[in-house]
Amino acid sequence: MAFSGALTLTDLNDYLGPSQVCIKPVEAPEMRPNDAPSSISVENGVYVETSTGPSRARTTLETAQISLNDCLACSGCVTSAETVLIGMQSADEVRQELQRKGDRVFIATISAQSVASLQTRLGRPYAVLWPQICHAMRSMGFELVLDTSLARHLALRAHVREFRERKAAKKDGAQGQPVLPMLASACPGWVCYAEKAHSALLPFVAATKSPQQMAGLLAKRVYGPSHAGTTLSGSLPAPMAGVYHVSIMPCYDKKLEASRNDFTSSDGIKEVDCVLTTGELYDLLMEQNFEAYTPTEIELAAPHPRPEPGSSSGGYLFAILMDVYQTWMSEHPTSTPALEQRTIRSADYTEYLLRAETGEVLFKGAICYGFRNLQNLVRKLQRETGVKSTRMGRGITRRGMEEPPYEYIEVMACPGGCVNGGGQMRPDPAWKAEQEAGHAQAMQEGAPVQGWQGTDRRWVQLVESAYWDDSEKSSDVLGTVKEALSPSALRTWLGDMDESAAAIERSFSESDFRTQYHGVEAPSNGLAVQW
Question: Which residue ranges does the record assign to the Iron hydrogenase large subunit C-terminal domain (predicted)?
Fold first, then answer.
């Protein structure tokens, strides 16, 4: 099992089991003064506590456990939950839940990045693969198998609304917490890192829920109740306990996101019950011999869900950029702004400026993928905002830079973004051997070969190509925006999806689309220090 390489830093002790380094104290009940002494013995492998008083009461002791929620609330490490506690959200759990299904409605939502990864590994087009996946999962017991396109679009629309609010607050001179730059919040690896190492930056992190959690809202409050026969009109029902929602994502860190208490109702109902990675879904599909299914002509002719323009990580920067552009054009129809692009270190760290004809910068944003770039970004934000790290580094309060600061940053922990998530399919051994042979030949010829953290970059590019499915839209933000500058394209992108999303939004409140974050203080326990 390949775990996420997103959170690998020199100052963090990743992938260490709690038996070695976990510092969370075991909660034991306090002894009352009048309690009789007791003794503990082992009987058939079970610990039993026996009172030495007259009652001779016997109590079977429970094994101390550490949950994903415990890890999220602890600052001792960031990702040991991935290596030790991953069994809490796994294919085995899904199998067990299906066996005791009862009257529950099972819904699966599958990310576009996961489908693209499976397409690349299996070498088949979306039109063939998607019906095979749906058929296999329905055979397992799932009533609904959905992609995340609508949930992602809801997240983008809510993201744009939040950016407008923050920008208006800055323009009005709002005091208190900082409002800009706004940082993307869809990557749980980045959010977890910010909470544990840079909590001073949390006010800048967007409060909008990720597409995964938006999909959870739809599953528990729209699709599930509707499938169960509930008539939906006006306000939606409370989250439905009779719905079991499984999310398939490219990243192990999404399991941590689904485990957050913020995404659990007061009745204990989670928006996402279980998260599987692309690789775990593949294992389930192989058990069902899914490749033997031949899609019907109707299934083969079904349209491919159109990806959001901008990037294969969701297109967050593009959504903000296009909103700023369209707002400007509606107010200044004769003044067309120009877009400038600047690569800072690589394609994983690129800046975008939207500049009016007068030279005024209307918008400055960036995409920042991978923790190497992310650390540089954090230092830059500390200089621009004056915030301090909760762990390392010094708060630097230099201001008044000549260049305007960022207003929005699309942050993702994995190099290359979500298509290179730690839970994605790895290259086929034959493909890998072929590439290694080519690498050896290039080394002999003295040709430079670019390295890549994690998966081979050439493989990631293949997944990226499958994500866009040869559509007219590539991941080139600059080219996309320039195309959108034409009068014929001056309209809301993805109009059909906008209409569907707007209909859903009327039944929710804005607070349903928002969440909150919790900074975690560094441990003060001297026993937790790694020597």
Answer: 106-422
Are 63 and 46 in contact by the 8 Å Cβ rule? The answer is: no
Please compute the mean of the pLDDT values over residues 358-377 and round it to a whole number.
90
| Cβ proximity of 338 and 363 under 8 Å | no
Summarised one tens digit per residue, pLDDT across range 150-185 is: 999 999 999 999 999 999 988 887 777 668 999 999
The mean pLDDT value of the chain amounts to: 78
User: Helix and strand tally (H, E) in the chain?
Assistant: 19, 12
At residue 232, the 3 state secondary structure works out as coil
What is the band of 70 on the pLDDT scale with cuts at 50, 70, 90?
Answer: low
CA nearest to 84, candidates 63, 98, 70:
70
Let me know: does 61 contact 47? Beta carbons within 8 Å.
Answer: yes
Which amino acid makes up residue 65? Q
- How far is CA 264 from each of CA 209, 258, 405, 410, rounded to the nearest angstrom? 13, 9, 36, 26
Q: Give φ, ψ of 293 to 5 degrees.
A: -75, 135
Residue identified by tokens 């026993």 is 527
Helix (H, G, I), strand (E, B) or coil at 299: helix
Q: Which residues pair with 48 in a beta bridge?
A: 41, 60
CB atoms within 10 A of CB 76: 20
Cα distances (angstroms) measured from residue 384 to each of 197, 206, 238: 18, 18, 42
Is the Cβ–Cβ distance between 99 and 137 less than 8 Å?
no
Residue type, 240: M
Comparing CA positions, the residue from 177, 162, 194, 159 lying closest to residue 385 is 177
Question: 352: left (phi > 0), else alpha (psi -120 to 50), else beta?
Answer: beta
Q: Which two tokens stand for residue 329?
A: 């054009």
The CATH number of the structural domain formed by 158-209+310-422+457-512 is 3.40.950.10
* Sheet strands side by side (includes 274-277): 144-147, 105-110, 243-249, 274-277
Q: Enter the CATH code of domain 69-153+210-301.
A: 3.40.50.1780
- What are the domain boundaries of the chain? 69-153+210-301, 158-209+310-422+457-512
With 90 as the cut, is the pLDDT of residue 259 above it? no
Using CB atoms within 10 A of its CB, is residue 260 exposed (0-12), middle (13-18) or buried (19+)?
buried
> What token pair was written down for 128?
């063939």
Alpha carbon distance 262, 518 (integer Å): 10
